[in-house]
Amino acid sequence: MPATELENESPRFSDLQRRAYRVLNEDGIVDFALGLGLLFAASYVGLNHAGGLNMTAWTGLAPIFVMLIARGLRKRLVYPRIGYARSRPASPAIVLTATMLLLLVAGLVAMTVYARRGVRPPGTLMPWLLRAFALAGAATLALMGRQTGFARFYVHAGVIAATVFVSLAVPDVHYGLLLMFGLPGLVLLVTGLVCFFIFLRRHPKPIPEATHANS
């Protein structure tokens, strides 16, 4: 293929890819799922600090719970309206999930090493891992904004990054982490629900042909 044709095809492919990402993220489910996950993290910090409850097992199950909810919503309410498409190469949402899992595994490995040595981990270890977790999420949301053209992802990234730095100024580490997870989680959850209901109104469920013919 001549160089001029490749140059013409590249912008066209990039535009098609952006449109595909926009369609995949128009429903707001990514926002909703991330917001729900952040609120789970905030509840873990709050309950652990206020009530001394050990929520480690719940923390491990929470990502699975959130993924099942997101998948169920898309399977039942989104795909029947716009169809199903697999994004290739990996979408930013998949990159985000992989990044979060890697950070979670890194945290678990660090805690296991300290436990085997019979040494209590430094009190600053987990807060800094959680801040790295949040900043990785912010960076991936900014990437999603670039890929989709949706300004709301840039806003989400800015809110998360801002709360990370604000949390450093809060004297009580637990309250700082609660702010860092709770505020962005609420913003993402509400934004996701609003986008989801707008999506449902824009894309009504198609009427089956048999039912349409009988009427």
Describe the structure.
The chain is mainly α and 215 residues long. The chain has one domain. Helices cover 82% and strands 0% of the residues. It is built from 8 helices and no strands. Helix 2 packs antiparallel against helix 7.
Question: Can you summarize the main beta sheet?
Answer: none
Q: Give the CA-based shape.
A: elongated
Order of helices and strands: HHHHHHHH
Would you tell me the overall average pLDDT?
A: 77
Overall strand count: 0
What's the number of domains? 1
The termini sit apart by: 53 Å
Secondary-structure-based class equals mainly alpha
Give the quaternary arrangement of the chains: single chain
- Computed CA radius of gyration, to the nearest angstrom: 21 Å
Percentage of β-strand residues: under 5%
Low-confidence stretches: 1-9
Total of DSSP H or I helical runs spanning 4+ residues? 8
Task: Compose a concise summary of this entry.
The chain is 82% helix and 0% strand.
Which structural traits does this protein have?
215 residues, mainly alpha, elongated
Write the layout of secondary structure elements.
Blueprint: H1 3-25, H2 29-50, H3 56-82, H4 92-116, H5 125-148, H6 151-169, H7 173-202, H8 209-214
Helix pairs in contact: 2-3, 2-7, 4-5, 5-6, 5-7, 6-7
